[in-house]
Each structure stands twice: as C-alpha cells, then as structure tokens.
C-alpha cells in the first residue's frame, strides 16, 4: 500500500483505538472528586477502582497477543471494542463500589487489545527503520486521548454528569469497532502464514522465547518499572498531589492535567525523532532509553524533596519526560521476528499493566497510612514517602544497566547480550 493508504486505513483507525483507551484509562483523574463524593471512597478504594482497569487489561494481554498473531488486528480489535462499550454502559449505571469495580474491569478487558493491535498493524505495514517515529506518533495519539480526559471532560460535565459521559464513551467504542471492521486491511499473506504457524498449540514455548530474547530482557530490566510508575501515577495520583500538596483548586488541577497530557504528545514525537537521530550516529535506542529513565527519576526526586518553587512545572514535566518509557515497544518490535511482534507487545503490556495496577493501588494504600485533614487532603509527607518508594524501585534497573555497559559485572550469574541487534547493541567505538 502507498504511504497515504497506510495512514488512512492502518494507522488512523488503530490510533483512534489507542486514543480512546488512553482517554478512558485516565478519565478517573478528572472524575475523582465526583466519584469520591458519590461513593464516599477512601484513597485505597479510589486507587483500587481506577487500577482495576490495569489488572483486567493485563489479564487480556497473552490471549489477545496470540489472537493478534493468528488472526490479525483487523479481526481481533472490533469485538474487543464492543466488550469495552458494554463495560462503559455498565459503569454508567453502577450504583455502588462493587458494581463500578466490575464495570471498570470489564472496560479494561475490552480495551486490552487497543495498543497491541496498533503496534501489530504498524509493524506489519511500516518499514522497521521508521518504527520509532511512527510508534512515537501512536503514543502521541494516546497522549491526545489522555489530554481529552482533562479539560474537554470537565467542559462536558457542564452538560451531563459522569454517568452520561460514560454512555457517550460506550457509543464511541461501538462506532470505532464498526470503522475498523469496515476499513482495516487484513495482514498480507506472508505475514498471515508466519503468524498462523507461530500460533500453534506450543504457544507457551513461543512466549518463553519472547521472555528469553536478549533485547526483551535488557529493555524490560531498564524501562519496565519506570513505565509502570508513569502509567500508574499520571492516570490518578498526580491530580490528587496537585490538590492535596500544591493546594490548587479543582479547575486549576484540571488545567494542569491538560497541559501535562498535552505534553505527552510532544514528548512521544520527540522521543521517536531523537531515537532515529541518535541511531544515525551510532547510538543504540536502549542507551537513549537509559538517559531518559535517569531524567525521569530525577523529576520524581522533585516530588520526594517537595520542590516548592514550581509545583506546576513539576507536574507537567513528569508526564513530558515519562513518555520516554514508550521507547521499549519500538526496541522490542525492531528486535523480534515479525511473527512474534504481537506477542512481544503483549508480554510487555502484561508486565507493565500488572505493575501499573500494583503502583496505583499501592500508592493509595501508602497515603492511607496518614490521616487526612477536614477537607480530606493528605499531608505532603505521605506523598514524599510514596514517591520515595517509587524512586528506589526504579534505581535498581538503571544501576544494573550502567554496571553492564560501563562497569565490571561479577562473573557469577552474569547475563551477556551477544545478539548484535542494532536496536540494543551499543555502537562500535574506534
């Protein structure tokens, strides 16, 4: 297909799916005050309700990945979007915490294939050299969805309540399912045949092959925990931090969330462009990822130290820099055989979203160790401790990467990476 056809028939429909998934994933950050008031939720309950999306999303990853490699995204994505539409309708009619929890999980299950389908589709139709920038645009579409969950949602609440909002989201999911079913092309014959053979009953061994691949293991060790933190925190707790610690009004918090989510669009595109630019100069993408992770951890230290000079800047830079974590999808897509790209993306998603579930729910449990004030605001110390734990979790991967690349690793238990893949191998120096 021509480049224009690939954009219209492949990139655009699946990017819209990722857009909708990101919108629904982060919308609770804007709706948190309404949800807490309607159901009298504690921070732990709010974290569990919102993170149920991540848990269900993660559980969908392996079966969806196998289905993508066997049948292709054009056939897998529509029925899953219809399932998400059903979950959104159930959420709009939920009357207590348990009903909303189940409905939220159903939404996560239905949207579990959106990003993977997009990755599989673009990796099938786009040249490998162009994948970092194209996947950057894909992540930018998700950033646009997250941005739409802030100010646009707040404006929509002037005309409807959160229940009516979810009715509209259900209708959008159903319409997108129809669009993909009508316009998205099937995988080319060569890709289909290889995918079919890859989806034989011995699929567990194939997944083991993905987990054992040197490129997968290296990038997972370095980027996965920061990616978990980025998804788990920016989708909920940044908004509560801005309210509880920075003391901003609900309208100001929504505006800052909008700026932060909009920054994801520019950050994702910039990461793709920087990665390609660095690659032309012999710098491996995993080295770009390491630099980005180090900067992301430095930003989080601002939360730990309660860096008061600019709380607004800190919240926006967190989401801007956090987009670097999406680079691991491009590295894995470049490194694995075409028949494994779907399962490679799902293995990443499985681990990332399980971790995001734990980060989001665990953060709320840590906050719950402190007592709120009369306005239900939690003290700055609670957030400092919670962010401090996250920083410690991320430093290990960065330290191991630095020791492997520039230090002397111990001989016992050392893992070497002699694959020679350009996506993960360091440049040759003279």
Automatic annotation (TrEMBL):
Chain ranges passing through the membrane: 45-64, 76-94, 100-122, 134-153, 165-184, 255-274, 286-305, 311-332, 344-370, 382-402
Annotated GO MF terms: transmembrane transporter activity
Superkingdom classification of source: Bacteria
PROSITE patterns reported for this sequence: MFS (PS50850)
Localisation per UniProt entry: Cell membrane
InterPro entries the record matches: MFS, MFS_dom, MFS_Efflux_Transporters, MFS_trans_sf
GO cellular component: plasma membrane
Disordered: annotated segments: 410-430
Keyword annotations: Cell membrane, Membrane, Transmembrane, Transmembrane helix
Biased composition (Polar residues): 421-430
Span of domain Major facilitator superfamily (MFS) profile: 6-405
Membrane topology: Multi-pass membrane protein
Protein name: MFS transporter
Native species: Duganella vulcania
């Amino acid at each position: 297909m021509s480049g224009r056809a690939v954009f219209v028939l492949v990139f655009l429909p699946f990017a819209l799916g990722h857009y909708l998934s990101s919108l629904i994933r982060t919308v609770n950050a804007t709706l948190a005050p309404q949800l807490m008031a309607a159901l009298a939720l504690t921070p732990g309950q709010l974290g569990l309700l919102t993170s149920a999306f991540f848990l269900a999303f993660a559980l969908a990853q392996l079966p969806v990945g196998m289905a993508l490699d066997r049948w292709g995204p054009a056939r897998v994505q529509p029925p899953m979007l219809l399932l998400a539409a059903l979950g959104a309708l159930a959420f709009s009619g939920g009357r207590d915490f348990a009903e909303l929890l189940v409905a939220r999980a159903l939404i996560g299950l239905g949207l579990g294939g959106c990003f993977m389908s997009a990755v599989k589709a673009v990796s099938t139709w786009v040249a490998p050299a162009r994948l970092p920038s194209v996947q950057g645009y894909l992540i930018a579409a998700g950033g646009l969805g997250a941005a739409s969950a802030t100010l646009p949602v707040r404006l929509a609440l002037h005309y409807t309540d959160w229940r009516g909002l979810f009715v509209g989201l259900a209708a959008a999911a159903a319409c997108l399912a129809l669009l993909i079913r009508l316009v998205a092309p099937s995988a080319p014959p060569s890709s289909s045949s290889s995918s079919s053979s890859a989806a034989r009953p011995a699929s567990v061994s194939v997944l083991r092959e993905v987990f054992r691949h040197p490129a997968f293991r290296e990038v997972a060790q370095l980027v996965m925990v920061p990616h978990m933190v980025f998804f788990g925190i920016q989708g909920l707790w940044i908004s509560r931090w801005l309210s509880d610690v920075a003391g901003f009004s609900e309208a100001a918090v929504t505006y800052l969330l909008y700026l932060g989510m909009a920054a994801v669009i520019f950050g994702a595109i910039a990461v793709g462009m920087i990665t390609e630019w660095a690659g032309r100069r012999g710098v491996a993408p995993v080295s770009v990822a390491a630099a980005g992770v180090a900067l992301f951890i430095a930003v989080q230290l601002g939360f730990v130290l309660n860096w008061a000079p600019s709380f607004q800047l800190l919240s926006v830079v967190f989401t801007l820099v956090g987009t670097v974590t999406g680079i691991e999808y491009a590295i894995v897509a470049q490194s694995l055989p075409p028949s494994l790209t779907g399962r490679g993306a799902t293995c990443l998603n499985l681990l990332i979203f399980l971790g995001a579930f734990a980060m989001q729910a665990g953060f709320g449990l840590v906050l719950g160790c402190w007592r709120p004030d009369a306005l239900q605001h939690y003290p700055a110390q609670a957030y400092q401790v919670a962010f401090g734990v996250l920083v410690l979790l991320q430093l290990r991967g960065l330290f191991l990467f630095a020791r492997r690349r520039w230090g002397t690793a111990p001989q016992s238990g050392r893992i070497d990476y002699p694959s020679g893949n350009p996506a993960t191998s360091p440049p040759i120096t003279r």
